[in-house]
Amino acid sequence: TTKTLLLTGASSGIGAATARAAVEAGWAVGLFARSADKLQTLADELGDAALPLPGDVADPEAQAGAVAALVARFGRLDAAFANAGIGAGAPGTEGGDLDSWRQMLDVNLWGALVTARTTLPELRKTRGHFLVTGSRAGRSVIKGSVYGATKWFIHGWAANLLEEMREWGGRCTVVAPGMVDTEFFDEKKPKALRPEDVARGVVWALQQPASVNVGEVYLMPNPEAG
Ligand code: NJP
């Protein structure tokens, strides 16, 4: 049987690169993000192994519909990667833009929580794997204090979620990169990680034997290596 992976934030960056790498590794993928046109283009590239699932992670009904559609199409869910996230200019606390705060909380926290709540009943059936994108910013201290704190939440939450999932043989991984050259930034970041570098780490975690839990995939760029 083909294993299946639901990815949020699949329309660009780390999510799109992971979708490509997972299909390359033999997985079928459900592609969730708001940009329906980008998801369709990626699904056309990936063929029968990909299902575009347009929606907003802040909308629990949209996520529920996407999981139902994926299971209807592929018959099972083996892994979910809660990767959608925004930096909103990585706002800090003093003078922080309130709308940006709200959007980050809705996507980075609420959206990831809802992805877990929506996928866990299906993952339980396959003793599956939940992955979530944290950050170096969830392991250290950055100037964008509010963005950084959303990622500290992810790391703390995922460590606790692993304990919950272990009761039925599930697994939980935090994917924690340093800077990655994606649409997260307005400008190119030539010395950063490539989204493909992160995707390789995600697929490596997915491919470990069921008896092995990868708690964290922590990747940093090494710019002086060329
Ligand atoms: O960024 P980008 P990344 N509902 O902008 C989607 C974390 N991270 O790949 O909805 C559903 O290319 C958006 O799609 P769309 C970061 O915090 C990054 O770098 O169509 N989806 C797109 O597919 C985030 O958690 C760096 O606009 C929503 C995707 O999210 C993850 O990596 C470093 C959505 C964002 O793709 C992926 O970001 C680090 C919504 N409401 C952690 N809002 C870095 N780049 O340096 C957004 O440590 N999306």
From TrEMBL:
Q: Which GO terms describe its cellular component?
A: membrane
Entry annotated with the keyword Cytoplasm? no
What Gene3D superfamilies does the entry give? NAD(P)-binding Rossmann-like Domain
What's the family? Belongs to the short-chain dehydrogenases/reductases (SDR) family.
InterPro entries recorded:
NAD(P)-bd_dom_sf, SDR_fam
What name is this protein filed under? SDR family NAD(P)-dependent oxidoreductase
The record lists the organism as: Halovulum marinum
What GO molecular functions are on record for this protein?
A: oxidoreductase activity
Protein keywords: Oxidoreductase
